[in-house]
Write a structure and sequence with these properties.
Blueprint: E1 18-23, H1 29-40, E2 45-50, H2 58-65, E3 89-92, H3 95-104, E4 111-114, H4 127-148
Parallel strand pairs: 1-2, 1-3, 3-4
Helix pairs in contact: 1-4, 2-4
């Protein structure tokens, strides 16, 4: 029919203006996602937090360094440590974080998306085997950010 626009593609990525990545301790998955998203989504406010703060993980620094990225001065922080508390989208990467985000946003108009992400800290073996598990998480997150958050172009 002429003059009628096609229905919007509901599967098309929609880039939010602000994103919070959440995991259990803001030490591995959520800070990795934050750094990747900042690199891939310029102009978007991106932060990360954990249900509780953990300790900075040197393997994260190593695998981000391999792709010329860095955590910089990142210090693991909890939700209470955030300066801003409103986000267009909260992406949770662990079950505990997902439950906390749903509780946090009960009375707010915030989208919550759950990306079950493996925990590379449970990997055992040689240093190379452990690093391989961190690399897998890095690439997994990079793919999801590109497919689900990055707008066209």
């Amino acid at each position: 029919m002429e003059g009628v626009s096609p229905a919007p593609d509901i599967d098309a990525p929609r880039t939010p203006r602000s994103i919070l990545f959440m995991c259990r301790m803001n030490a591995v998955r959520s800070p990795m996602a934050e750094v990747l998203a900042r690199d891939m989504l310029p102009g978007i406010y991106v932060a990360s937090a954990g249900v509780r703060p953990g300790e900075r993980d040197p393997f994260v620094d190593a695998v981000l360094g391999e792709v010329d990225l860095s955590l910089g001065r990142h210090v693991p922080r909890s939700l209470e440590d955030l300066e801003d508390d409103y986000f267009d989208l909260i992406v949770t990467l662990a079950p505990e974080a997902h439950h906390a985000a749903l509780e946090l946003t009960r009375s707010m108009a915030v989208d919550v998306m759950y990306w079950p992400t493996p925990d590379p800290t449970v990997a055992t073996g040689t240093r190379d085997q452990i690093l391989a598990s961190y690399r897998e998480v890095r690439e997994f997150l990079k793919t999801l950010i590109a497919k689900r958050l990055k707008g066209p172009g």
